[in-house]
Structure formats: C-alpha cells, structure tokens
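Limitations

Structures in this collection are predictions, not experimental determinations, and the ligand pose is part of the prediction. Treat each record accordingly. The example that follows, with adenosine-5'-diphosphate as the small molecule, is included so readers can see exactly what is and is not provided: the inputs are given verbatim, and the output is the predicted complex.
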Amino acid sequence: LTWPEYWKKNKSSIGVLKGDDPEKVDENLASKVSIWEGDITKLEIDAIVNAANSRLLGGGGVDGAIHRAAGSYLKQECATLGEKPEKLQECYRNSLSVAKQNGARTIAFPCISTGIYGYPQRAAAKVALATVKQFLVNNPDSIDRVIFCLFLKTDKDIYEELLQKYFAFE
Ligand code: ADP
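Predicted complex:
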C-alpha cells in the first residue's frame, strides 16, 4: 500500500493533519512513499539499502562480535558520539542518487544508524523523511516508490506518526 492508501485504511477516523508542513505536499508525491514492516531482504524491489559501513562486510561480523562482548555500554558510548544529521542525510540522498543513476524505480530503506550505531530512532526518522521528500520533490521523474522498511514496532509507530506530517496531503 502507498502511504495515502495505508492512511485511509488504518487511520481514516483520525484524519490527516493539514498545514503542519510549510511545504505543501501533493498526492502524487505522497503516493510514492510506503511503509513495510518486516525483513528488507523479502521485498521484491529494484534496490535495497544496507546499513553497513564502506567496507560492506555485512552485519554482525567483527562489529557485532565487539558489541556483543562489550554489552550495552559500548552502544551507549557510541550514541554519545552523535552521528551528525548531515551524515545521515547524505546516506539517504546518496542512496537515492545511486538508485536513480542505475535506473532503479523502487527502493527500500532500513532505519539506517538506529541499530548498533545508536542514532535515536525518532530523530533518524525525521532526517529520513525530510531527505527523501526533498529528493522526490527535486527529482520528480526518477523514483516511483520509496519503501521505509521498519523492522521494529517502535519504528513503525514513529513512522506512522511522522509520515502524516511529512507526506500528508489534502
Ligand atoms: P546501524 O549500524 O546502521 O545502526 P543495524 O543493522 O544495527 O545498522 O540497524 C539498522 C536498523 O535495521 C535497525 O532498526 C534494525 O532493527 C533493522 N534491521 C535489522 N535486520 C533487518 C532486516 N532484515 N530488514 C530490515 N531491517 C532490519
């Protein structure tokens, strides 16, 4: 389901927030975003984005092992390092650019940086939605569908709330 369809089906009694966002979003734009709860590897889609570092060694590995051994303190410590929003924004923007360059029409994102890396979920969702929206506005004929793949219920709740702010339409 696209976000507007999902919204109508699940939240119609609450209604759509209007005028919350200075940049008015049209239905065409809103219809390009979806949420999906589950495993990103199960999606039949042109491109999926990995939340990995540039070595692309895959999840777990030495990073996972170190974090398992260190316990939650390491995660807390990493969180205090604070990835700058600009860096996270670049992750989304660059992924969309690469997808566009390769002719991918559909792309799915996991909640980048909010797992092992420890970026706060809600703040990360705001960066993700604002960046994707800006890209879709600036590149109207490139990507048909962006799916936010939400692995955790907490992320699903956050995206359900924030999507109406960023992609609500009249
Ligand atoms: P990072 O280092 O960027 O934080 P993680 O892989 O630790 O990357 O976590 C990023 C997000 O991906 C988390 O919300 C996590 O729950 C989610 N996630 C884990 N496995 C999957 C999966 N198979 N499909 C989609 N999302 C997943």
